[in-house]
Protein: Cupin domain-containing protein
Organism: Pigmentiphaga soli
Amino acid sequence: MSDDSQASVDVIGGLDQLYPVLNRERYTAGWHKARPSLWKEPRTPFTPRHWQYAQARRYIDLAAQWIGTDQAERRNLLMFNPVDDNDYASLPNLVAAYQMLRPGEHARAHRHTPNALRLVLDAQEEVYTVVDGVQLPMVPGDVLLTPGWTWHSHFDHGRHDAYWIDFLDVPLVHRLESMFFEPHPEHYQPVEQAPAESPLRISAADQDRLLAAAPERDGVRSARLDTPSMRTIGLTVHRLGAGARTHRHRDAASRLFAIIEGSCRIEVGDQAFDCERGDLVAVPIWHPYAIAAGSDARLLEVSDDSVQQLLGFYRKESGA
């Protein structure tokens, strides 16, 4: 302890005089915190949100007049939750973005710590993602995985624009401060394999098989997608028959719902969002939610529940 600090301690005559000294030395008295550090149940400033594919597609088509993949690492529109100064994260541990490629374009190769995946919305002939040299076709309804620290790039060799939704755990990596990023030294990633099947591609047909094997409850089937290479992101596909409705519940996880096909209404807390194909809805932690199908519908759920379970934090409550 310095002489000045000792002198300060010697003249302290009560708690009101002690608190500023503690603050100066970067201590907080646990009994005198400005705000609580523990609370009864999860709380979050993140709010339910609905992003519409039709709207985003108009905006990204407009932007494509002026920004190309030669200028931008990715031509994408991030879907952010308006929390404080946040202009990036969709939810505390997840971010989603609409991305688009024009014919002849190549989104150059890079790799990074965060895990990522793509839900293909609209793509026609000769559109690909390449992951560590493995070429994966991008077909509407496909889910393509890009595990952390794998080289990945995208190509449109066809005659039509291609669109998809990216999902990443970048906000989680930001919190952990373990971000690493590297552009490919050649910008272009050569194709080494083009397999008919890959664990990095979960096609719409694969999803159909999983859903057919899943039990049906009141017109709803759900199947967890096996993604051992991506431990921080949980993926589940849901199929609802027209008029079907899920049970309302809440749990200690945040999730994003993307509508693969059909239409539905997603209720979150006291809000309700009417969704069409390609739309995205954010459900923050501990918010009760339910899904009602207007027509036969398929949804992809992207969640941080695997992280919550891994750490032992996960809880759920039915009938909320």
About this structure: The mean pLDDT is 94.
